[in-house]
Design goal:
By secondary structure, the protein is mainly beta. 5% of the residues lie in helices and 38% in strands. It contains 4 helices and 33 strands. The strands form 7 sheets. Strands 14, 15, 16, 17, 18, 19, 32 and 33 form an 8-stranded mixed sheet that branches.
């Protein structure tokens, strides 16, 4: 059992740790500086009567750890919600930033707001680490977890993952803690969390949110435009799979295709990322496509197993030494008689083999589904797929529209979202305009337009 003054080098069982530098710990005031040394690093202030520490967490227990010294304050106030305790960092001298100086257990397992300040003397105080229960997490003081609680200045956490450099990633985990934060300098293969900050409403009365950082760099305009992000594309943040096509390891009568030149017709459904269905060109396969939408591959769910498919997962492959891939455009269609097909969704794919997810509105249960596709090069006649998943997906929240911010590319253009929100807005007094602690950009340095914007479709 830990006691006050004890060094806790690593979190004990049932606890998790956040160090002094974590983004969700706010240091208010102008006296803060690093206190480095062999025993670790802490953040300390030389203006203790005005400087404060603020953070929020969900959990039922809390520990504060810091360096100790006879020069540190012995009257430090910690306010948890409306309850105030006093603790001391003047309990001997230790250069370790993991000395336990305060512990609180038995709290209600909910969100708590914490503020720390010195109240009685002009001695310094510092913070090395914060431990909370291992099922809890830190929150930004303005953070919410449900979109129904949005208002200007509030923020909600989100996850963004990219598997291949210079390709578009996937958003998810809205409102939760999925991973560590994406670095403020970003990366071309991000896999982490960030905040969407609520800044305004659009002309339709929908909330407008902007990412608090550049979530990805080195993505070409062509790829952003092809994915629809340049001007706005619908995405879904969370949901549950109701039904998906099973793994097939051999030829089955309910998977058919207009033509086949190489591979097995069932290969896109076998779970492998290597095997494929491939058409080649009409001169080799002996047949021109029936539709201008390209050759088709079909899945028959059966008369008694009709599905409302609203989620496609597709992976093309490289069929050419010159770097041409098998899907440029595709059309997803459904039918209940196998003759007349309704168009459900039209999509595009970047010229690579990234597996991409497509979610769309479809509430009609069909027996037959077809994917018509055209590839890159050879007039689009060469097509094929390595992986196909047809999924019936329950969406937990409304769909969103995500796009690039306008502006950020010319000093002469001031009528844009970048200048309006990032540079000039204080979000109804919630922040300082252009605050780098919020937006994670240096407004003096050259700026570029890779920040993302998300709008809820209400």
């Amino acid at each position: 059992m830990a006691t006050i003054g004890k060094v806790i080098a690593t979190p004990e069982v049932g606890w998790k740790r956040y160090d002094y530098a974590h983004k969700l710990i706010q240091y208010e005031g102008i006296g803060w500086s690093l206190n480095t040394g062999s025993g670790g690093t802490s953040y300390q202030t030389n203006k203790p009567l005005t400087d404060t520490i603020k953070f929020a967490f969900v959990g039922n227990q809390l520990r504060i750890m810091s360096k100790t010294s006879t020069n540190y304050s012995n009257q430090i106030e910690i306010k948890i919600d409306d309850n105030i305790d006093i603790f001391s960092e003047n309990i001997g001298s230790s250069a370790y930033s993991t000395n336990l100086v305060y512990e609180k257990t038995g709290l209600a397992n909910k969100k708590h707001i914490v503020e720390i300040k010195s109240v009685s003397d002009n001695s310094s105080f510092n913070l090395g680490n914060i431990d909370i229960n291992d099922t809890g997490r830190l929150f930004h003081p303005d953070e919410i977890t449900d979109i129904k609680d949005l208002k200007i200045g509030k923020r909600i956490r989100c996850n963004y993952q990219v598997t291949t450099a210079r390709t578009i990633g996937v958003f998810g985990g809205l409102g939760g803690e999925t991973s560590n934060f994406i670095p403020a300098i970003s990366t071309d293969i991000p896999n982490g969390d960030f905040y969407f900050v609520c800044v305004d409403k659009d002309y339709l009365g929908r909330w407008k949110l902007i990412a608090d950082r550049n979530i990805q760099h080195n993505v070409s305009w062509d790829d952003l435009n092809t994915a629809g992000i340049a001007n706005g594309v619908d995405i879904v943040m969370s949901g549950k799979v109701i039904y998906e096509t099973p793994i097939e390891t051999k030829a089955v009568p309910y998977i058919t295709a207009e033509v086949i030149y190489c591979g097995g017709i069932w290969h896109p459904f076998d779970g492998s990322m290597v095997t494929y269905w491939y058409t080649s060109i009409p001169g080799y396969n002996g047949k021109y496509p029936e539709s201008s939408d390209g050759y088709w591959i079909q899945y028959d769910f059966g008369e008694n197993n009709k599905q409302a498919i609203n989620f496609l997962r597709l992976k093309p492959f490289n069929y050419s030494s010159s770097g041409l891939y098998t899907v440029a455009t595709f059309v997803f269609k459904g039918s209940n008689d196998g003759v007349y097909f309704d168009t459900i969704f039209r999509g595009t794919h970047i010229n690579n083999d990234t597996q991409m997810d497509y979610i769309f509105n479809n509430k009609t249960h069909y027996r037959y589904y077809r994917i018509y596709s055209r590839g890159y090069g050879n007039n689009g006649d060469i097509t094929g797929l390595t992986n196909i998943k047809m999924i019936s997906y329950q969406i937990f929240n409304d769909m969103f529209t995500i796009s690039l911010l306008t502006g950020g590319t010319s000093a002469n253009d001031k009528d844009n979202e970048w200048d309006k929100y990032i540079v000039n807005s204080n979000l109804n007094g919630m922040i300082s305009a252009g605050d780098n602690n919020v937006w994670n950009v240096n407004l003096i340095a050259g700026l570029h337009q890779h920040h993302q914007q998300i709008r809820e479709k209400w």
